[in-house]
Specification:
mainly alpha; 92 residues; globular
């Protein structure tokens, strides 16, 4: 039951942090970063905007954790191993 409770808590945290970020962006007339052709390549929240900046970092961590919980430990470790191995194959 603890994992179900954690998933619910993470979903709420993701919603709360998303609200903080979208309210900040809307108040400043900014868009979020996106993969759209004409989208922003970087998120437009500077570190000196402490609350929305921290909310963005917390959002990224919570979404990663929710992903890991939703796929389970075996798949999460497998994904991590593939990420590490694919990085080591990149030549610069």
């Amino acid at each position: 039951m603890a994992s179900i409770n954690r998933m619910t808590a993470l979903a709420k945290e993701i919603s709360d942090k998303t609200t903080i970020i979208t309210e900040y962006l809307t108040s400043k007339g900014l868009e979020a970063a996106s993969y759209d052709v004409d989208g922003l390549a970087e998120f437009p929240i500077p570190p000196d905007e402490e609350v929305p900046f921290k909310a963005r970092l917390d959002l990224a961590a919570a979404t990663k954790e929710l992903y890991d919980v939703s796929v389970g430990p075996k798949q999460a470790v497998r994904d991590l191993a593939w990420d590490v191995s694919s990085c080591s194959m990149v030549r610069y």
